[in-house]
Amino acid sequence: MKLPAFGVEDWLNTWEKKASLDISQSTVAAFTLEELLGIDGKTSVGDFFSAPAKKPLDYGWIEGSPEFKELVAGLYKNVAPENVLQTNGATGANLLVLLGLIEKGDHVIALYPSYQQHYDIPRSLGAEVSMLPLLEERGWNPDIDELKSLIRKNTKLIVLNNANNPTGTIIEEPVMLEIAAAARKVGAWILVDEVFQSLDNAVKMTPIADLYERGISTNSISKTYSVPGIRIGWTASGSEAAAIFRSLRDYTLICAGVLDNILAEHVLRNRAAVMERNRRIVLQNLSIFAQWVEQEPRVSVVMPRAVPVSFVKLDIPQDTEQFCVDLLRDTGVLLVPGSRFGVEGHARLGYCAHTETLRAGLDALSGYLCKFDG
Predict the structure, then answer these.
(1) Where are the beta strands (DSSP E) in 197-259?
(2) pTM here?
(3) What residue ranges do the domains of the chain occupy?
(4) pLDDT of res. 332
(5) Above 90 in pLDDT, residue 55?
(6) Would you say 190 and 208 are in contact if contact means Cβ atoms under 8 Å apart?
(7) What is the DSSP string of 82-108?
(8) How far apart are CA 225 and CA 219, in angstroms?
(9) Is the predicted pLDDT of residue 374 greater than 80, yes or no?
């Protein structure tokens, strides 16, 4: 299994800890442990850990605790708790699905730009991967007729990322249903990485596991829930897919940590409060970001619909990767160059940082862009 370097992760591993103004990230302003435990308005760090402090740090629940599985199943209409499998983040969930379904000679369709593991892991397993481009002129939406033309009799899997990383755009439910209908004709599975959600209540996003009998939803508490440090994700599917993935879990992850599972339960029990906190951050920041784009002549963007990431287009006479390196060196501002997603001339800008960081980062970026106006 030979894999190329993972573009975005390699970039962040190299540069993110050197940034003083990180507006590259895709997690809504991460909680501190104290903030997270107090989200219910009554729990302190000491109170929370008084019971776990007496628990043995054994292997815990292999597939996730019964409460965890119930809480996750409650996010779906058509997923039973026994068909929820706990994983090491959504990255681990996607890996589990791809290892479970893909064999040499299979055909896979994947979005582009998107998260690199969605297409490079199938390639490494010997599948032929057809790339379905997201089109900027269509608001970073795919051409569904092109998708249909790519489907073959041996198409095993369609891999989507909804909402999309890096563009922050959403494939609407009617289009998802159209994709499901096309997949159904050849019996293809659909994997949708759903770690990003719109924080706008008016935007309707239905998980693929609730739309299609061969739909597999992967998710985690990292992005929309602001707790990437716990490393808890899951697969949600029907029983056939869950049985396939269950047989592979012992090869990839015996179990998550006992304390991680307990913290994940706390996040999901308090989902409403977590989402309300993050909704305030994202909607406020989106307004700031939109005003900044409007007044910044060298930046344009397909505006995300309250999804925490954006993919800005930079009108600059310089390679964007070198620009991002220079920007970090000279100002402390971190972006992810679009080249790390295979798209030159763009950069991922995560407007979901703490508001004061976003304001300072945008101001510094504007000042730096002025150097091209001389």
Answers:
(1) 215-220, 233-236
(2) 0.96
(3) 7-34+273-368, 57-271
(4) 98
(5) no
(6) yes
(7) GGEEEESHHHHHHHHHHHHH--TT-EE
(8) 10
(9) no
Contacts of 274 (CB under 8 A, 6+ apart): 39, 225, 226, 267
Residue 94 to residue 90: CA distance in whole angstroms:
6
Element of type H or E holding 245? helix 239-252
Give, for 22, the enclosing helix (H) or strand (E): strand 21-22
Order of all β-strands in the sheet with 233-236: 84-87, 233-236, 215-220, 189-193, 155-161, 107-112, 128-133
Enter the tokens of residue 232.
């808890």
Q: Which of 129, 130, 126 is nearest to 104 (CA)?
A: 126
The burial of 223, by beta-carbon neighbours within 10 Å (0-12 exposed, 13-18 middle, 19 or more buried), is given as buried
Fold of 57-271: Aspartate Aminotransferase; domain 2 (3.40.640)
Domains 7-34+273-368 and 57-271 alike in fold:
no
Write down the CATH superfamily of domain 7-34+273-368: Aspartate Aminotransferase, domain 1 (3.90.1150.10)
How far apart CA 83 and CA 92 sit, in angstroms, is 16
CA distances to 19, 290, 314, 340 from 300, rounded to whole Å, are: 24, 10, 7, 19
Contact 192, 215 (CB under 8 A): yes
